[in-house]
Amino acid sequence: MKKRICWVLFVCLCFTLGWAQSVRSYRQAEDSLTVVLSEGEIRLYPLADNAVRVKYVRQEPVLPDWVYVGNDKPAWSVKETGEEITLGLPGLVVRIDKEKGTLAYFTPEGKPILQEKERQLVASSVQGEPTRCAAQCFYSPADENLFGLGQFQDGQLNVRGLSRRLTQVNTQIAVPFVLSDKGYGILWNNYGLTEFNPADSLITLTRTVSSGDAETVDVTSAEGGKQEVRERFVFTSSLIIRESGRYAVMLDVGQTMARRHHLKIGNQTVFDMKNLWLPPTTSAIVELEAGVYPVEAELEKEDRPKVYYRKVTDETVFRSPVAEAVDYTVFAGKADEVIAAYRRVTGEVPMMPRWALGYIHCRERFHGQDEIVQTATRFRNDSLPMDVIVQDWQYWGKYGWNAMRFDESGYPDPKKLVDDVHALDARLMLSVWSKIDPASEVGKLMQGKGYYIPQTSWIDFFNPDAAAYYWENFNKRLLKPYGIDAWWLDATEPENDDLLGRKVWNQTVPGEVYRNVYPLLVNRTVYEGSRREMPDRRVMLLTRSGFPGMQRYATATWSGDVGHDWETLRRQIVGGLGMVVSGQPWWTYDAGGFFRPGQSQYTDPAYHECFLRWLQAGVFLPLTRVHGYQSDTEFWNYGEEVVALARRALDTRYSLFPYIYSEAARTHYGGGTLMRPLVMDFAGDSLALAQKYEYMFGPSLLVAPVVEPGKNRWEVYLPHVQGGWYDFWTGAKTAGNGTWETVPVTLEQIPVFVKAGTILPLASGKPQTTREAADAGWTVRIYAGADAAYTVYEDNGIDYAYEQGAYALVRMEWDEAKGELTIHPREGSFPEMKAVRPLRIIRYAGDRQEKQVTYEGEKLTVKF
């Protein structure tokens, strides 16, 4: 009751009673500007030329600073007039209104980009401990578009006005960052639950009758696979809308996970989504006329649903019920400039190992090491490209959950397993959890030291001693003995919201304080430990949850235990775009879906079509992988047609390797983003911003996945670019440019287009591994119509020598007026570098011309 009273009081104080505070004084330190208000202080920390962190505090913060990293501070200045105090940076200007205490943000040229509206920080409590509720409201113009917040399953790409509850659960990743098409980004710094545009009006639905439907399903859980009986019940209420308009609606099923999202308001179906696991909340924006509406939801028997709603207004709000301060950072500039600055202040992205960018093959699950080696061997024998093969859970067998030990009955010699996989020029990824069976050998040790989160089997990574001991065992039991290449850190949320209501860090801090940040600490532990113990081998981590700053730990995320259908495919693309625009560049999904349609999957043409569309889009994701629950996911189990089309898709992925690896380098060195929602390249094009399923793959390729069945034509929006667009598959010039293009499609491929003014480096031939792709000759495609430039990046792909400058760059420039390609002298080198490389140069310009040359590191000019 005390917590509920605090919440209501907080809402009233924050948004009803007003809060404006005048400036009393200010002081300048080496790293910050402190503005003293009538209550509390605003502290501004310049972090980069275009970034400033803002804290509104009433007492000294004590929480550790896990998100931000030390970096060179920019030059900045302070000026005062009668009305305001101004903090100036080379790329951002902050003005503090002395009468109201509000902040406004401008470009150096004086263009407004963002303005505070309201702010509040009020006393509260959690688990009997003192805390504060923090909120910050910003003005948001009606024509603004906002993107980000991580990976959600609600299918919403533009989140302006949307109400979302940011929690970490299976299939949902909360990253409290948004990017605006108005030239800024905001990182909200809070480790706990955050409400984005909180909707405080609510109705509670009452269970009425069973729908009569029940089914027994196989599901995954933190204890392994199990069966559950799922019954559906109807819940009802009524909703009074007093004013017509657009309303943000959020359904909360009242459990830690949902099985179905369904809601009808009047005759309008707002949500209708089913999966074996879904987040507990889902959100949408609906148009509602004033009136009284019957509300109906068909959900699970044990659900306790509530519907939250609010009228969409011209504001954006972040609110955290457990906080020390109002704490956020503003980044100014174009999308790439914002993301680059975000990475400078929260950590740069290391280079992934070369092999991680090839095909990653997984199933749930391999049952022994012979099965893994035989499968990898068949990939090679069938000329199917593959670089990584994955052992999912339960290899520990009789030793207990995540016992950091292989059960000898299926894995008699794990070191030989790794060696056999390496002999096939492949790598092994192993599933490892942050939970350990307390009855296992390692678990007993952990339990004896008090290193568990109370009443759970999750390790308390907030306790540095517990994290260090976890790593000590991980290192001596798994890393050092076997030489395993990559780690799949599953369920790092932790699953089932298990921090809620418990105390962590030796039972000294309420779990709500750190509710969303657990994945950051788990991945930090494994990354930093791996770099210490294996300094000459790049780390690659795949994990199911994330948080700002986690990109610095060589982590990739995937979208969790999702279904297999068309609607789920659409939602994964949208969720992935939300994730990458939140500054986390390495993302993927389970191509084909995790929960699959049983034995029929192997023979059902309808599923094969859907699976192939998942895979074809997956070729143009940062990472490409297949996975499936209780499924033998190898292509040959689905018939010859699927094998042929899968081979074609993977051939495309491997041909793109020089481009993909160069973009990986751009991600590391320049803060780039490989998978790009169209706001990143076409922020001024309202039609482009409305596209939820199209995206750019690097700077040159526009990908338009086919996300509906039975299509032989597909509508593609092509934003305006100088010189227009080309079909990636044929090289033909298209008519569309700033218009819709109707594209014929077959089951063989999805529409992909190339911008005019592109130099696209490809690997020649049909490499089966990324090592072969790196060693191959290059096919350099030139798409004429505008001047172009591209830099191909190379290093050895396996260690950290690039950090000491062991890499090479090949700069290429196309002069449209001269019809001339210049390949500049190679810059840099590394011992394994291929010094001489045959080049097949193809120019597309309505026609096709080809020339062949040999590049030996010296300047070359090719005239067309």
Give a quick set of tags describing it.
864 residues, 8-stranded antiparallel beta sheet, 9-stranded antiparallel beta sheet, 19% helix, 52 strands, GH, DUF5110 domain-containing protein, 13 helices, alpha+beta, single chain, globular, signal
How would you portray this structure in words?
The strands form ten sheets. The chain has a nine-stranded antiparallel sheet, covered by helices on one side. Strands 1-2-3-4-26-14-13-11 form an eight-stranded antiparallel sheet. It has an eight-stranded parallel sheet with strand order 35-34-33-30-29-28-27-36. The protein contains 13 helices and 52 strands. The N and C termini lie far apart (77 Å). The protein is 19% helix and 37% strand. α3 runs parallel beside α4, α6 packs across α7 and α9 packs parallel to α10. A hairpin with a 2-residue loop joins β20 and β21. By secondary structure, it is α+β, with helices and mostly antiparallel strands. The N terminus is likely disordered. This is DUF5110 domain-containing protein.
